[in-house]
Structures are given as C-alpha cells and as structure tokens.
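Collaborator request, handled under Task 6.
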Amino acid sequence: MSETTVIETIRQYLTEHLCHGDRSKLPADDASLIASRLMDSIITLKLVSYLEDTFGIAFEAHEVTQDNLDSINKITAFVHRKQST
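Structure tokens returned to the collaborator:
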C-alpha cells in the first residue's frame, strides 16, 4: 500500500473517531495526538485494533507506545515498518 494511501486511511479514521467527522480539528501530521488531548488509553486500544485489521499487521505489547502512535506521521511510519517485515 502506498504511503499516500496509508496516511489518508489513518487521517480518515482519526477524523471519524477522534474529531467526530470534523477534519478541521485533526492536528497536523507531525503534531502530538496526546498533547492535543485527542488520544487516551481506550482510543489507543481501538486505534491499534483498527491498524491491525486494516493493514494486516500485529502489534507486540512493547510497540504500543508514544513513539509509534503519537502523531499521524509516527503511525504511518510504524505501519510501513511492520508491513516491511
């Protein structure tokens, strides 16, 4: 899957589930989702499940971290790394 497709799929999910359909509330791709108060533990678990189902990847427990999930860019990079292995 191309990077453009992955990032757009992630943006769409986050818009629907974090911003209640209002794309203007979605932070920039490199902005922290945690600092913007859009992410919490329940939303993180739902996001992990969505990413696994949508992109055919599997998270290890130690991979559910801010380093992998705190911005759209970080999520996209993580998905590409997982798909490459």
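The cover message to the collaborator said: "The chain has one domain: 3-84. The mean pLDDT is 94. Please let us know whether this matches your experimental observations."
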